[in-house]
Q: What sequence folds into this?
């Protein structure tokens, strides 16, 4: 299943609920466009909820990195929420787990924005 | 051994199929990437690998197919990707061959190096090596061949026998 996203606001933070696969092609483009649109609207406190993302390939990992650096370069912050074991393991072996700010609890993720 | 082509046969018919070998010639398209992953999932499952290993094998094949389609053949409609699954002794051997200019291994960066951590690409071969037991890469001027090897351990073999 290709990536589907929906956004909602919690205390000034934009939560992007993602489900499906972030892979080369459509999945990566959906994520890229979504982040770009949110930044264009001035929403710079972003949480990607990956709880329903069951698969990410190397292009998807690249897209997460791209989202992270794009948001950061525009003075914003991006956090990852609810990683599945598969995604968690992928970020561990690629040494990206410590690069991203990963949260397991939505309230804590929202609170973590200064 | 591999069973008959079933569900995916309609979308991905093997060129050659024996109980021990399946071979496909595929276009240089994104669809090939998805189909290669799908075929790998099916073959690895039929071979008796567990869920985690099936996922690893399928992902390694997907990454190799991405390299073949994008970097090797550069989406050239004249160029094909050859995908082959073979059971040899205690191994599942998967070969992916493109018709590109040949991968320059010296130019493949280490994605774990601090200066490369935030790069948005260059993790495919690293992931392939992480997920398979052995990987052989043979670049040449007429293309790159990558061989992915996963040992069929006792559990997988037992599972296969039990399921027959």
A:
């Amino acid at each position: 299943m290709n990536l589907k996203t929906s956004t909602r606001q919690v205390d000034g933070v934009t939560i992007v609920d993602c489900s499906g696969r972030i892979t080369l092609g459509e999945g990566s483009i959906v994520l890229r466009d979504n982040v770009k649109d949110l930044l264009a609207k001035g929403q710079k406190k972003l949480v990607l909820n990956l709880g329903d993302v069951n698969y990410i390939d190397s292009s998807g990992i690249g897209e997460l990195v791209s989202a992270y650096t794009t948001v950061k370069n525009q003075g914003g912050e991006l956090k990852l929420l609810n990683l599945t074991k598969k995604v968690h393991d992928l970020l561990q072996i690629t040494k990206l787990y410590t690069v991203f700010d990963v949260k397991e609890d939505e309230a804590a993720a929202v609170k973590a924005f200064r | 051994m591999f069973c008959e082509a079933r569900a995916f046969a309609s979308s991905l018919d093997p060129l050659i199929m024996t109980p021990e070998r399946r071979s496909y010639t595929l276009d240089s398209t994104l669809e090939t990437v998805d189909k290669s992953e799908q075929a790998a999932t099916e073959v690895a499952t039929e071979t008796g690998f567990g869920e985690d290993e099936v996922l690893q094998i399928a992902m390694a094949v997907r990454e190799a197919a991405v390299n073949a389609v994008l970097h090797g053949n550069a989406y050239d409609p004249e160029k094909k990707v050859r995908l082959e699954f073979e059971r040899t002794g205690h191994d599942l051997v998967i070969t992916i061959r493109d018709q590109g200019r040949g991968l320059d291994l010296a130019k493949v960066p280490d994605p774990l190096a601090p200066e490369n951590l935030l790069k948005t690409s260059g993790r495919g071969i690293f992931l392939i090596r992480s997920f398979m037991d052995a990987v052989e890469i043979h670049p040449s001027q007429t293309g790159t061949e990558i061989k992915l090897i996963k040992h069929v351990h006792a559990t997988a073999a037992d599972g296969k026998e039990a399921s027959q």
Summary: Strands of chain B lie at 16-18, 21-27, 80-88, 91-97, 134-140, 143-151. Residues 3-10 of chain B have pLDDT under 50 and may be disordered. The CA atoms of residues 63 and 85 of chain B lie 16 Å apart.
